[in-house]
């Protein structure tokens, strides 16, 4: 039989509670049952002191029903509900078990309690109709159980494919559920996690280590680099640009951060084709002097040129003639016109004032470059002409690659590949903008991660 406590003993229990002692310590000091002292502690924390003078503290059926209802809806766990309603967590747990098993919150006490309930039809112990409506029905419980089973099976299937990634997602989900005041034990049981893993994740978020702080700073800097260069830099160039800005980071670390934060470069699709047309005999035309030897040691030693065209919104075209130096990768001439004629070719040559003579000028076999007037102009400037083999774009691959890079980095991501809604003047401004960016800001791996202008200054200074 349970021991009944006197008022004086309850006063002593209250004094210990006011000193800050917990129920286990009080029960050990006074040689009492822990469950009994824990019941008084719950009432004390709830602000109820009627237990000091009362010889029996029955549980209010309405309060117990409300506590069971909140637990079944997943709002709180047993411990939080115990503090909120002033009821022992074991009492709430027993009420939940009774409701799930018998459909009733408070069963009759004593031997053969279930038989008594069946005998009297449950009239003595069934809660009022108003409280019954607040509980979860058996159909709702079955639906919740089925949904949980479906989610568990889905979780198992995902774990077979990406176990590591899925575990991280489950930890993140558990952390979010912890913030919603849901029972930690229930969340970890459903998601099949150790609570220590979630606590470790919470600690890492609240007080990140120095490595993660550095990663966050690097991510901000990488975002700035990609925004400036329109997401055209890959891992190598981003790593080099970070070093230029004073940051030390391994390329594998940069690759991981770029992949995790969706900062990868826009990749230009390769065009794997080859045109095989029989060459016709060439009379009085220079041969392929360059012969795909795209290396040079001095500025102006080898120049390559080509014409590309961009669509104008009025239905016409903007023809761009470009000349590139193979030693420094510098664009030394850029001429634009609405028509592809000899004036465009001569305008590009007029911009080569600072280029030394006695160099090699290589182009394809376009009608402008095979014109006799163009060959005479090159001879006047002291440049030797070289022509690609017919229908062979690889002989002039360097300037062809530049044309593709300009379109893919400066136009296609924003205007796609159809006709652009840009006037001729706007296209000219954008082409000049890209040429300036290419020469002064865009670093290249083959130049030691320098810009063409920086490499040009280094080459010209070393030659004097």
Describe this structure in words.
The chain is 52% helix and 7% strand. Helix 14 crosses helix 15. Strands 3-2-1-4-5 form a 5-stranded mixed β-sheet, with helices on both faces. The chain has 464 residues and is an alpha/beta fold.
Give the SSE layout:
Layout: H1 7-18, H2 23-30, H3 34-45, H4 61-72, H5 78-85, H6 89-102, H7 113-120, H8 129-132, H9 138-161, H10 163-179, H11 184-191, H12 195-206, H13 210-228, H14 235-244, H15 251-260, E1 302-311, E2 317-325, E3 331-337, H16 342-350, E4 360-363, H17 372-380, E5 384-387, H18 397-410, H19 412-415, H20 424-440, H21 452-463
Parallel strand pairs: 1-4, 4-5
Antiparallel strand pairs: 1-2, 2-3
Helix pairs in contact: 2-3, 4-5, 4-6, 5-6, 9-10, 10-11, 10-12, 14-15
Q: Short description, anyone?
A:
With 464 residues, this protein is of the alpha/beta class. The chain is 52% helix and 7% strand. α5 packs across α6.
Main features:
single chain; 464 residues; alpha/beta; 5-stranded mixed beta sheet; 21 helices; 52% helix; elongated
**Average pLDDT, to the nearest integer?**
81
Radius of gyration: 41 Å
Q: Which band does the percent of strand residues land in?
A: 5-15%
Helix content: 40-55%
Low-confidence segments, given as residue ranges, are 120-134, 275-282
Strand numbers in spatial order across the main sheet? 3-2-1-4-5
Order of helices and strands: HHHHHHHHHHHHHHHEEEHEHEHHHH
Biggest sheet layout: 5 strands, mixed
Total helical elements: 21
N/C terminus separation: 108 Å
- Summing up helix and strand content along with how strands pair, one would put the structural category as alpha/beta
The count of strands amounts to 5
């Amino acid at each position: 039989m349970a021991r009944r406590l006197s008022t004086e003993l309850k006063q002593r229990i209250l004094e210990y509670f006011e000193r800050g002692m917990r129920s286990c310590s009080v029960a050990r000091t006074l040689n009492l049952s822990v469950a009994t002292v824990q019941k008084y502690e719950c009432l004390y924390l709830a602000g109820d002191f009627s237990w000091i003078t009362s010889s029996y503290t029955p549980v209010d059926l309405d309060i117990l029903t409300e506590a069971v209802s909140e637990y079944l809806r997943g709002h709180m766990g047993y411990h939080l509900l115990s503090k909120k309603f002033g009821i022992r967590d074991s009492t709430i747990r027993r009420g939940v078990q009774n409701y799930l098993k018998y459909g009733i919150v408070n069963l009759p006490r004593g031997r053969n309690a279930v038989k008594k309930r069946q005998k009297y039809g449950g009239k003595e112990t069934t809660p009022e109709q108003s409280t019954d409506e607040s509980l979860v029905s058996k159909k709702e419980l079955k639906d919740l159980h089925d949904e949980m089973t479906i989610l568990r099976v889905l979780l198992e299937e995902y774990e077979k494919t990406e176990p590591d990634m899925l575990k991280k997602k489950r930890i993140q989900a558990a952390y979010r559920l912890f913030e919603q005041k849901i029972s930690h034990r229930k969340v970890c049981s459903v998601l099949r996690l150790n609570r220590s893993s979630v606590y470790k994740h919470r600690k890492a978020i609240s007080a990140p280590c120095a490595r993660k702080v550095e990663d966050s700073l690097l991510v901000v800097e990488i975002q700035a680099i990609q925004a400036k260069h329109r997401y055209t830099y890959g891992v190598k160039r981003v790593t080099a640009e970070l070093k230029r800005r004073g940051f030390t980071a391994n390329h594998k670390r940069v690759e991981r951060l770029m992949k995790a934060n969706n900062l990868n470069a826009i990749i230009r699709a390769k065009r794997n084709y080859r045109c095989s047309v029989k060459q016709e005999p060439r009379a009085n035309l220079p041969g392929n002097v360059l012969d795909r030897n795209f290396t040079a040691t001095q500025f102006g030693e080898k120049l390559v040129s080509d014409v590309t065209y961009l669509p104008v919104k009025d239905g016409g075209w903007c023809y761009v003639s470009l000349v590139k130096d193979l030693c420094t990768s510098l664009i030394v001439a850029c001429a634009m016109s609405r028509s592809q004629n000899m004036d465009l070719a001569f305008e590009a040559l007029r911009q080569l004032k600072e280029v030394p003579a006695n160099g090699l000028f290589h182009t394809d076999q376009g009608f402008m470059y095979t014109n006799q007037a163009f060959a005479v102009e090159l001879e006047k400037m002291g440049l030797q002409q070289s022509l690609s083999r017919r229908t062979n774009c690889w002989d002039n691959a360097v300037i062809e690659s530049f044309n593709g890079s300009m379109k893919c980095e400066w136009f296609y991501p924003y205007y796609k590949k159809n006709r652009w809604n840009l006037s001729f003047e706007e296209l000219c401004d954008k082409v000049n903008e890209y040429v300036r960016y290419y020469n002064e800001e865009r670093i290249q791996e083959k130049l030691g991660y320098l810009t063409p202008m920086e490499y040009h200054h280094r080459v010209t200074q070393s030659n004097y």
